[in-house]
Write a structure and sequence with these properties.
The structure holds 2 protein chains of 2 kinds. Helices cover about 0% and strands about 60% of the residues of chain A. Chain A has strands at about 5, 10-15, 20-25, 30-40, 45-50, 55-60, 60-65, 70-75, 85-95, 100, 105-110. Chain B is built from no helices and 11 strands. Classes of the chains: A mainly beta, B mainly beta. The interface of A and B includes residues 36, 95 and 99 of A.
Chain lengths: ~110, ~120
């Protein structure tokens, strides 16, 4: 069964600190992995999309890593800001079924 | 280039009424996806459409729910005889081609409340 598990479910950090969010998946065959940011009351916005051959991809203060062997990805946020408070969703695309599988998300709260 | 547009943003229906949710994809995008997000839960895929075709409706409840994406006009997600459990945020996304390698761009969502 295709699954995407994210941890932690929720996280509180102080402004300026770094944090890392985890994503483990069992989707097969793997095609690509995406990280989205979803602000409360809004639609998800793409942060990165990574294919099998990519290990690291950055988007400003966001850096995603992918280990296709262990089927793990992480999203590292550097020097957090209050505006980083949101849900972060890991999504994996399965080539065979033409399906996206969504993780449950990590709710991040950045406090001043 | 306007993003994905959804309307209404908020919709209140009484049990038994019909709800019609509209999605206008980004300009040039011919693929539309609908997702449902229950309170405090993640997004769940419902249906994937191209113009005039349903490609994948494996996530759609078998009864009361239907979707269309006509040649002209927005995509419509229709829920008949709504029940309280239908209360959720419904998001639409679009992409220029099939969902494989292409980014999906999400709309702001329609929040449906069934009273």
């Amino acid at each position: 069964k295709n699954q995407v598990e994210q941890s932690p479910q929720s996280l509180i950090i102080l402004e300026g600190k770094n944090c890392t969010l985890q994503c483990n998946y069992t989707v097969s065959p793997f095609s690509n992995l995406r990280w989205y940011k979803q602000d409360t009351g809004r639609g998800p916005v793409s942060l990165t999309i990574m294919t099998f051959s990519e290990n690291t991809k950055s988007n400003g203060r966001y850096t995603a890593t992918l280990d296709a062997d262990t089927k793990q990805s992480s999203l590292h946020i550097t020097a957090s800001q209050l505006s980083d408070s949101a849900s972060y969703i890991c999504v994996v695309f399965n080539n065979a079924g033409n399906m996206l599988t969504f993780g449950g998300g990590t709710r991040l709260m950045v406090k001043p | 280039n306007a993003g994905v547009m959804q309307n209404p943003r908020h919709l209140v229906r009484r049990r038994g009424q019909e709800a019609r949710l509209r999605c206008s994809p980004m300009k040039g995008h011919s693929h539309v996806y609908w997702y449902r997000q229950l309170p405090e839960e993640g997004l769940k895929f419902m249906v994937y459409l191209q113009k005039e075709n349903i490609i994948d409706e494996s996530g759609m409840p078998k009864e009361r729910f239907s979707a269309e994406f006509p040649k002209e006009g927005p995509s419509i997600l229709r829920i008949q005889q709504v029940v309280r459990g239908d209360s959720a945020a419904y998001f639409c996304a679009s992409s220029p081609l099939g969902q494989g390698s292409y980014e999906q761009y999400f709309g702001p969502g329609t929040r449906l409340t069934v009273t």
